[in-house]
């Protein structure tokens, strides 16, 4: 009766009961004799329980030669690529340095290695421009003035007064130097020199204007001094001296100043500031 009861509790026949036992036996055999049997209360032992989660496989690093770019090359090709890039960088730096020396003003390096620079630049990389136009000055130029003064003791001539030195003294140590002290005299002298030839003859329409401009600058500076009389005539000159080369340079330069003296100019009312100031005062009162 037990057998019949067991058979009736199954699916209706004894054969189905035996079939329900076989898969379990097969699974135990396939799992090996040492594999533990699933516990009855374990959620994984039920027929409807989800399959156990498996860990994601850890990706192994790419072997050499499987990356992107240079990293994807083999070691030999990576070495060739690194050497090629280094060579290109060195050639680019050499090109920039040679072009800079070619367009730069004359200096110690270009005087010693000018032939090498020219061989590099010409004819493939010809350059027809300069880095500085015009080249920076390599001279110190000072503007001097002296005056012929008539006083109680007659006429006398003062010594040379350096107007440039006075401007320099006013600039040094000043947190906010005057633009006039920096540029007025220098620009005025350049204006005169560029408008006259070596014999102080005007070479254009602006020659007379530049002469009156530089004379007025000189008289404005002299009016601040007590010269002991009335200024009748003035004379101006420039003292140009070459800047001495640095101690490490083998270049030799004559640093003795050279002078360019202008003729004596009689002082006219237009050279003085009083007439114009008086005219302005009159215009203000009208």
Percent helix among the residues?
Answer: 40-55%
Mean pLDDT: 77
Q: Helical element count?
A: 8
Largest sheet properties: 6 strands, antiparallel
The best one-word shape is elongated
**What is the percentage of strand-forming residues?**
5-15%
> What's the total number of strands?
6
Radius of gyration: 50 Å
Order of helix and strand elements from N to C terminus:
HHHHEEEHHHEEEH
| Terminal residue distance | 147 Å
Which key terms come to mind for this protein?
disordered N terminus; 6 strands; 6-stranded antiparallel β-sheet; 8 helices; 286 residues; alpha+beta
Overview of this protein structure:
- It is a single chain.
- This protein is an alpha+beta fold and 286 residues long.
- 42% of the residues lie in helices and 13% in strands.
- It has helices spanning 2-8, 14-31, 75-103, 108-121, 163-171, 179-194, 207-222, 274-285, and strands at 139-151, 154-157, 161-162, 230-242, 258-261, 265-266.
- Strands 1, 2, 3, 4, 5 and 6 form a 6-stranded antiparallel β-sheet that branches.
- The longest helix is centred in the N-terminal third of the chain and has 29 residues, at 75-103.
- It starts with a helix and ends with a helix.
Sequence-ordered SSE layout with sheet pairings:
Blueprint: H1 2-8, H2 14-31, H3 75-103, H4 108-121, E1 139-151, E2 154-157, E3 161-162, H5 163-171, H6 179-194, H7 207-222, E4 230-242, E5 258-261, E6 265-266, H8 274-285
């Amino acid at each position: 009766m037990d057998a019949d009861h067991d058979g009736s509790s199954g699916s209706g026949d004894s054969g189905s009961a035996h079939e329900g036992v076989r898969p379990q036996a097969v699974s135990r055999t396939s799992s090996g004799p040492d594999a533990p049997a699933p516990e009855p209360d374990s959620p994984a032992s039920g027929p409807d329980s989800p399959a156990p989660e498996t860990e994601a496989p850890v990706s192994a690093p790419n072997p050499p030669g499987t990356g992107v770019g240079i990293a994807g090359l083999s070691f030999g090709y990576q070495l060739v690529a690194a050497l090629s890039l280094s060579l290109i960088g060195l050639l680019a730096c050499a090109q920039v340095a040679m072009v800079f020396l070619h367009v730069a003003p004359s200096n110690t390096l270009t005087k010693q290695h000018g032939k090498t620079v020219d061989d590099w630049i010409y004819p493939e990389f010809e350059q027809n421009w300069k880095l500085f136009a015009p080249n920076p000055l390599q001279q110190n130029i000072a503007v001097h003035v002296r005056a012929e003064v008539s006083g109680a003791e007659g006429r006398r001539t003062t010594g040379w007064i350096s107007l440039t030195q006075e401007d320099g003294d006013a600039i040094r140590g000043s947190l906010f130097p005057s633009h006039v002290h920096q540029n007025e005299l220098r620009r005025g002298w350049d204006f005169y020199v560029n408008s006259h030839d070596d014999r102080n003859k005007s070479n254009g329409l602006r020659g007379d204007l530049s002469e009156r401009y530089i004379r007025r600058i000189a008289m404005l500076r002299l009016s601040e001094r007590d010269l002991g009389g009335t200024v009748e005539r003035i004379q101006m000159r420039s003292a140009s001296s070459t800047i001495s080369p640095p101690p490490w340079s083998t270049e030799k330069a004559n640093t003795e100043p050279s002078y360019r003296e202008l003729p004596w100019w009689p002082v006219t009312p237009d050279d003085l500031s009083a007439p114009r100031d008086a005219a302005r005062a009159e215009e203000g009162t009208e």
